[in-house]
Amino acid sequence: MAPTDDIRAKFGRFRILVVGRANAGKTTLLQRVCNTTGRPEIFDREGKKIDAAVVQSSVDRGYHNIENELVFGSNIDFIFHDSCGFEAGGEEEFKNMKTFVLERASTTKLKERIHAIWYCIPMDEYHRAITKAEERFFSECNTSSVPVIAVFTKFDALWDDAYGQLKESGLTRAECKKMAPDRAKEIFANMKIWDRLCDTQYPPKDFVCLAEMDTGNADCGPLLEGTTGALGEETMQMLLISTQRTNLAHCIKYAVNRYIH
């Protein structure tokens, strides 16, 4: 197995396309992954820094460039791309996103390849978790060898419903609070959201449910572990592991599993 430095020299930084509605909590998620509360710096495809105000002005006018690279100073080993646009129903944006995925999944320029896609679905609107945007993405967007992880954000919104159900059953507040997270998982399973995604033409490889990303209790470990497992190829797994400056537990878990298997 090639050393991490050799892998970096060949493949560059770990590159992720983030997909999801405007209220899906994408920015908060990326901040947690990179252990920061700051905003990312934005670069064009050539690596030239772009003024954030200029980017926002373009977004306000309805234009968004998926080619732009988002990099957080707290962890420059990640490069993120935001699909912002097609979820609102824009035909051109959807075509641009599909073209981007196909090109970046197979480009011979290895440092420009995307390695994973995180599709964020907010659970504070769980009654409409799967909209036409999700249906279209998973039925029409062939991501080739790039694994897609369905990321159910704001999962703590389900805790509130779970708490209410438990309270109606006569349990104490303390009991309800303790049992709500597990009951929320049952509610989620009964909604068959994951089953629906698995029945699509191009289903995601895995899913994770993330709660309290806007608090100090935020834990991105499950997302990083799920992504590592979905990558399949050990070289790409090593590239992702090399980004983990703060998540020592994830690195140790990967190393132990690799040793066992």
TrEMBL record:
InterPro entries: GTP-bd, P-loop_NTPase
Record Pfam families: MMR_HSR1
Domain G: 15-154
Name of this chain's protein: G domain-containing protein
UniProt-listed CDD domains: Ras_like_GTPase
Molecular function as annotated in GO: GTP binding
